[in-house]
Amino acid sequence: MAAENQVHTIGRRKEAVCRVYLTPGTGKWDVNGRTLGDYFPRSGLVSAIQQPMTATDNLGRYDVKANLEGGGLTGQSGALRLAIARALVKIDEGHRRKLRDLGLLTRDARAVERKKPGRPKARKRFQFSKR
Predict the structure, then answer these.
(1) Does domain 7-101 have CATH number 3.40.50.150?
(2) DSSP classification of residue 103
(3) For 31-46, how does the pLDDT look when each residue is reduced to its tens digit (9 = 90+)?
């Protein structure tokens, strides 16, 4: 099933994991069986996802097949963006410098802080009463 010129990479953000397969083609997007605009209804997320492609002038040159799981739309879009950037570097090492300067190859390690005992949330405290 895997073609010789197909590139596979993984991207993660928050709780989301994305597996991307880049194949030379016409720029077709398949995200969990749907189109990019159909899966991500917010245009800001779509432009953020396409940022690695536009930065390296590869928009429309590759077909993208993405399997996304876990997290919400923001986390999934960040995971997809990282996976695409990593795939472009695998295809051509010359893209690394440009993508690195834009911060597209850095894994965003921020995640939700755990809830602490005796508190309603991670940092929020119950109302203090002196008397």
Answers:
(1) no
(2) T
(3) 999 999 999 999 999 9
Residue spans of alpha helices (H) in the chain: 36-39, 43-55, 73-91, 95-101
Residue pair 49/40 in contact (Cβ under 8 Å)? The answer is: yes
- pLDDT computed for residue 5 by the predictor: 86
Residue 127's alpha-carbon distances to 30, 112, 115, 131, in angstroms, are 49, 23, 17, 12
* Mean per-residue pLDDT, 90-110: 94
Instruction: Supply 74's token pair.
Output: 């923001």
For the chain, give percent helix, strand, coil, nearest 5. 35, 20, 45
Tell me what pLDDT residue 1 has.
Answer: 53
Q: Which residues pair with 22 in a beta bridge?
A: 7, 64
